[in-house]
Design goal:
Elements (H helix, E strand, L loop, with lengths): L2 E5 L3 H12 L3 E6 L5 H9 L3 E4 L4 H4 L4 E4 L8 H8 L4 E2 L1 H6 L5 E6 L4 H14 L4 E5 L5 H7 L4 E5 L2 H5 L8 E4 L14 H9 L10 E5 L3 H9 L5 E6 L7 E5 L2 E6 L1 E7 L8 H16 L4 H10 L8 E6 L2 E5 L6 H9 L5 E5 L12 H7 E7 L4 H7 L5 E5 L2 H11 L5 E4 L12 H13 L2
Parallel strand pairs: 1-2, 1-4, 2-3, 4-5, 6-8, 6-9, 7-8, 9-10, 10-11, 11-12, 16-20, 17-18, 17-20, 18-19
Antiparallel strand pairs: 12-13, 13-14, 15-16
Helix pairs in contact: 1-7, 6-11, 6-12, 11-12, 16-17
Length: 444
C-alpha cells in the first residue's frame, strides 16, 4: 500500500485525502497550523489519520508521494528536505487529474480567472452539461473526482497549483493575462512567475486548445519565444484576428473553422473592458465544447458576478458603496478604478506583495478624491500618492474605514474598497475583509 502524505488540512488537502483513501493509499494529513473544525469532522468521518499544530517528520519522510497545499512555499525547510530525499511533491490538481475521464477546462491568469471560471461554468450548466467547478474556487477538484461523476471540470488554477503539476493537461486552457503578482514566492523574478502561468499548457497536445489575451504583451512575447503544441486561439479588443475572438461593430465574433457573431458587447451582464475579455474567453471555450451560440449569448447576458469583485453593496445618501475586496493586486485595482464613473473615495492597503503603485497614478489623479488606508503598513501608499491626493487617512479596520468614508463622501460619489494587497494583516482572507466591509456599510 503506497503512503500518501498531505501537507495542509484545508480544502485541497482534505479533498485529496478523501480521493487518496478511495484509491487505496495509506493517507496521513499533517498541518503545522490548526485544522478548521469542519475539515477535522470530514477527516474523522472518513477515518483518515491526521495531525495539526506540528509536523511529525519521521512519518512524513515515509511518503511515496506528497501533496502539498498551494499555500506552502517551496523554500520551507520541510519541502527542501523532501526534495533532497527524492520524494515526489505534487499539487492536488496533479493528483486528482489522474482519476478523472472528464473534460478539463483550466483557467489561470493574474486577474479575471475567478470571473472567467464562473462564466464558463454558468454557460455549460445552461447547456445542460454535467459540470463541476473547482480548483481555487468552491469544492476541491479532488473531492469532486472522488464523489461526483462530472463529465466536465472547470478549474480556476493559481500559479502555486500549477507549480505542482507533472502530467496535468487541460483539454482547454485559458490564460487571461499576466501582470506582476506573488513575486515574493518567485524570488522577485517576473520571468519565474510568467513561466509558472504557462505551465498550464506545457503538457497539452495538438488537439488541445490555449485561449489567451493577444493584447497582453507579456503573453505575446513569451509565445514568440517558445513553441507550443496546443492550437492557439487568441482574443483581442484591439484587432481583427484570423482565428480566435475579436470585436467588430461592437459585436463579439468567434472564428474557428467557421465564423459566428455571438452578441453585442452592450448587452453583456458584466461591465468594463476586462469583463468583455473574460466573456470572450468563456465564449470561445464553450463554443469548442459544442455549446450553441444562443445559449452562450443568454448566459453572458444573465450572469451575476463573483462576490467581492466590484460588488455593489448599497447606495446611501446618493453615495454608492462597492466591495472589490478580491482585488489583491495592483492590476485588479487598476480595472476597478478604470470602471469608476464618479469621484471616488478609495479604500486601499493590506499586506504589500512588492507592489508598484505607479501604474495607478493616472487613474488616481483623474478619479480619486480621498484615500483611506486599511492596513498595518501604509507608508508606501502614502509616499506614492501624497502629492496627488489631498486627503489620506489611516484606519485600523473595516468599520473605521467605512465610517471615515461616510464622512468624506458626498452625494454622487463612490466609496470603493479595492485594496490592491493581500488581507492577512487585519483579516482572515479577502472574503472576510469583504464581508466586514459590507457589514459596516449596512450598519451606517
Amino acid at each position: 500500500m503506497k503512503n500518501l502524505v498531505i501537507l495542509g488540512g484545508g480544502e485541497s488537502g482534505v479533498g485529496t485525502a478523501i480521493l487518496g483513501k478511495q484509491k487505496g493509499y495509506n493517507v496521513f494529513v499533517s498541518d503545522k497550523g490548526i485544522i478548521a473544525q469542519k475539515y477535522k469532522d470530514v477527516l474523522l468521518n472518513n477515518e483518515i489519520e491526521f495531525e495539526d499544530g506540528s509536523h511529525t517528520e519521521a512519518k512524513i519522510f515515509k511518503a511515496d508521494v506528497v501533496m502539498k497545499s498551494p499555500g506552502i512555499p517551496d523554500k520551507v525547510q520541510l519541502i527542501v528536505t523532501l526534495k533532497e530525499k527524492g520524494i515526489p511533491i505534487i499539487s492536488e490538481i496533479e493528483f486528482a487529474s489522474k482519476y478523472t475521464n472528464g473534460v478539463v477546462v483550466g483557467i489561470t491568469g493574474s486577474n479575471g480567472k475567478t470571473t472567467t471560471t464562473m462564466l464558463v461554468n454558468h454557460i455549460l450548466k445552461k447547456a445542460n452539461l454535467n459540470v463541476g467547478m473547482g480548483g481555487n474556487i468552491g469544492k476541491s477538484f479532488a473531492q469532486q473526482v472522488a464523489e461526483d461523476n462530472f463529465g466536465f471540470h472547470v478549474l480556476e488554477l493559481s500559479s502555486f497549483q500549477l507549480d505542482g503539476i507533472v502530467d496535468f493537461a487541460p483539454h482547454i486552457a485559458i490564460l487571461t493575462n499576466i501582470t506582476p503578482d506573488h513575486l515574493d514566492r518567485y524570488n522577485y523574478l517576473f520571468e519565474n512567475y510568467i513561466n509558472s502561468k504557462f505551465r498550464i499548457t506545457e503538457n497539452q497536445k495538438e488537439n488541445d486548445f490555449l485561449i489567451y489575451d493577444a493584447d497582453d504583451e507579456v503573453i505575446v512575447n513569451w509565445l514568440n519565444n517558445n513553441k507550443l503544441k496546443a492550437t492557439l486561439l487568441p482574443f483581442s479588443l484591439e484587432k481583427e484576428l484570423e482565428q480566435g475572438v475579436y470585436i467588430k461593430d461592437n459585436n463579439i465574433i468567434l472564428k474557428y473553422k467557421t465564423e459566428q457573431t455571438i452578441m453585442s458587447i452592450t448587452t453583456l451582464a458584466l461591465k468594463g473592458k476586462h469583463n468583455t475579455k473574460n466573456a470572450m474567453a468563456a465564449a470561445m471555450a464553450s463554443s469548442l465544447l459544442k455549446v450553441r451560440s444562443n445559449t452562450i449569448r443568454e448566459s453572458l447576458e444573465d450572469f451575476e458576478g463573483a462576490e467581492h469583485r466590484l460588488e455593489e453593496v448599497l447606495k446611501i445618501n446618493g453615495v454608492q458603496y462597492i466591495n472589490d475586496s478580491k482585488a489583491t493586486n495592483v492590476n485588479a485595482t487598476f480595472y476597478a478604478l478604470e470602471s469608476m464613473k464618479t469621484p471616488t473615495v478609495w479604500i486601499v492597503g493590506g499586506v504589500d506583495k512588492g507592489n508598484d503603485y505607479l501604474d495607478l497614478m493616472p487613474l488616481v489623479r483623474e478619479k480619486v478624491k480621498a484615500i483611506i488606508c486599511l492596513g498595518i503598513e501604509n507608508q508606501k501608499i502614502i509616499q506614492t500618492f501624497n502629492n496627488v491626493v489631498d486627503l489620506i487617512v489611516e484606519t485600523a479596520g473595516a468599520e473605521e474605514a467605512v465610517k471615515v468614508a461616510y464622512k468624506i463622501a458626498e452625494k454622487g460619489d463612490t466609496v470603493l474598497l479595492s485594496p490592491a494587497c493581500a488581507s492577512f494583516d487585519l483579516f482572515d482572507n479577502y472574503e472576510d475583509r469583504g464581508n466586514k466591509f459590507k457589514q459596516a456599510v449596512r450598519e451606517l
